[in-house]
Amino acid sequence: MFQRLKNGINSTLQNDVHYWVTGTISLSVMVIYLQTGSFTYIAFDDAKYVFNNDHVQQGITISNIKWAFTTFTFSNWHPLTWLSYMVDFSLFGLRPGLYHLENAAFHLANSILVYAFMVGLTRTPWKSGVVALLFAVHPLHVESVAWIAERKDVLSVFWGLISLVAYIQYTRNSSKVYFVLTWAALALSLLAKPMLVTLPFVFILLDCVPFKRLYFTTSSIFKIAIIEKIPFFLASLFVSVLAYKAQNASGAVSNFETVPLGIRIANGLDAIVNYILMTLVPRNLGVFYPHLLDQIPAMQTIINFVLLTVLFLVVLMISRKKPLVLIGCLWFIGTLVPVLGIVQVGGAAMADRYTYFPHIGFFIAIVWALAGNVTWGDRKAPWLSCAFAVCLVLLCVTSVRQTSYWRDTVSLFEHTARVTQPNSTVYKILGAGYGMQGDHQKAMEASKISLEMNPYDVEAYGNLGAALLELGELQEAEYAFQEAIYLAPYDPQFHVYMAIALYRQRRYEDAILRADEALRIDPEFQRASDLIERSRAAIVPITSLTPE
Description:
Elements: H1 2-33, H2 46-51, H3 54-57, H4 62-70, H5 79-92, H6 96-122, H7 125-137, H8 142-146, H9 151-173, H10 176-192, H11 199-208, H12 218-227, H13 230-249, H14 261-280, E1 289-290, H15 298-319, H16 323-336, E2 348-350, H17 358-371, H18 380-404, H19 409-419, H20 424-436, H21 440-453, H22 458-471, H23 474-487, H24 492-504, H25 508-521, H26 526-544
Antiparallel strand pairs: 1-2
Helix pairs in contact: 1-6, 1-7, 1-18, 4-5, 6-7, 6-9, 7-17, 7-18, 9-10, 10-13, 11-16, 14-15, 15-16, 16-17, 19-20, 20-21, 20-22, 21-22, 22-23, 23-24, 24-25, 24-26, 25-26
């Protein structure tokens, strides 16, 4: 009787904890991200993904579904993300606030899924709640949530977390249904973004601790780590190959002559140290951190290596009594591997958004290192609770401020220019941002500064040309678009912009030829078709006046 009463009390207390944690997560996410409902688009990929994308604005059609699964547009292969934008356009049109709020809703769902996963993994609601709350409010996650173009991040992690929750159920009852659900959710995650190609390795980590399914014997490794995981590794391998092809096809992948292996390793070590520091003290966060190439001092690389080695040894010592600390650290480092620059894509050294999924492991390690063996009856419990509460409040306040910078392009990139080293990308995007606000003079000046730093930046030429078009400098705009086409001959948008410059100079036949080239590259490019019709309509009155 007393045991039954005790079990009932424990069950009631646990239910109360679930309500408190999920309620606090919901309130925190709303406090931070409801403001994004009034935000506009950012001139950093938002145009490509939504408001200048003809395929997205045609909604879900058979041809657009085929396009989503076959295109390598913008150096990515993420068909599920494209389909989500198409659905959004059908529902919301081009109202940016609703796209922002949908990202926030996914982040809220992800935070609650982190809590559900942690409770299933550890059966400790309070510690699981701290991990989930850290995930919900950390400022490094603002980029993934407040950026419309990063829908792929929150969508991919949503399915990845469902895969993890299903995997817990599979390990407990060996149900084929949960095995299939685990694989299907992983596949959907990879269709949204290839970041979680490392998820099968996370499964193996969990098989070691806490599931204790995997032992260091030949039969156990062969059965659990190899045979059982083959379907997951095949999915990851397939998507990894497609992602590499997409990035390489657009020239986004740097070769080893441009960025040697030694520089890649040095940048990877530097990125890991910076991610740790930025997690513990999130300040001076920007949207773009330029790759320093060979400017990282050799001594700094040595210090980074020694520091990480010492930290790992400390983790090993702590993990003797708290094995989840090691699992969390390996999760953090392991899931960062695809974005550490060993395969260098683009010009960034690191990015806040890359921590979105790896942070779960980091927070597990921190919480279990500080409170792994602490229960409510311990004297440490109230002090640790207060410390975590203070940290969560400070992180929440910082996230509110960091999110506010995302209200428009100029606000975000002026902030980024203040907290990062001067680089061409920041001024390029500032040029686009000033253009969106109608300040075309500033747009032209910022674009020229960007091109002085990097004369091979095709998008900067595009921004410069767009500004010159609005300022009426049509021949200079034509020159800028010529440079853009020279650098990116297979981008149909630059051909259309060139056609617009020619059209405004009343060179209608030349405009038709240029728009035809855009249609040859992308037969579904509606703006090119519209421009051809307008040019032909403009030619008719002129030719009709020509004497026979």
